[in-house]
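batch_manifest entry 22 of 60
target: Guanosine-3',5'-bis(diphosphate) 3'-pyrophosphohydrolase MESH1
source organism: Apis mellifera
requested by: lab member K.T.
priority: normal
notes from requester: please return C-alpha cells only, no post-processing; we will run our own comparison against the previous entry in this batch. if the run fails, retry once and flag.
--- input ---
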Amino acid sequence: MEDDIHIPTVNHDPFTVTGSCELCSRELNTAELLSIVMKCVNFAAIKHKDQRRKDEKETPYINHLIGVANILVQEGKIYDPVVIVAALLHDIVEDTNTTFEEIENEFGTEVCNIIKELTDDKSLHKAERKRLQIQNACNKSRKAKLIILADKLYNLRDLQENIPVGWSQDRVKEYFKWAKSVIDKCRKINFNLERELDLIFAERVSKDREICTCKKSSKR
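--- output ---
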C-alpha cells in the first residue's frame, strides 16, 4: 500500500544511527567509525591524487592530510571522529573541485561546517588570506582550532627538514612568524600540541640568533 512506503531522508549526521525515537538512536560502534574514517581517507586520496607538496621530492599531498590527522591522534590524543575526518578533508574544497554540498552529503553537517571554517577565499590575494587567518583564528570553533594547531605543527616540522623549492631563508622565517601569530590566537586548546609548537618556535629563535648578521657584526 502507498501509505506504507517509507521514503528515506538524508542523514546529515553519519556519526549517529538515528532510530524512530531518541532511545533507539545510538553512536556508531568501532567498526562503523573505522569504516567512515577509511571512506574519508579514500575520498581524500582520490580528490588530491594529482597534487604534490612543493618539496624537491614532490611528496604526494595526501601525506600531509594523513600526517595532520595522525598528529591529532598520536600527539594531541584527540579521538573525536568528526575532528579526524575534518582534518583529512581540511584542504579539499580550497584545493580541489569538491563542493561543500558534496562534503555534507558524504560526511555530515558538522564536518562540513568545520571545513567551511578552514577554507580560505581563493578570490582574495594571498597576503590578504594570510592576514585574515590571523584575524579570524580566535573566532574559530574548538574543533577547527585543533586542526589549525596540527596543520601548523606538520608544516613547521616539514620546513625544518624540507624547504619548498624556490623558498629563501627569509621566506621560511616569515612563515614561522606568521604561523606563530595564527597559533597565538588558538591557545588553551590542547596542551600537547601547543607545547610541541612552542618548542619549534624556541628552536627557530635560537637558530635565527646564531645566524644573525647583526650579532656577527658586533663581535668584530
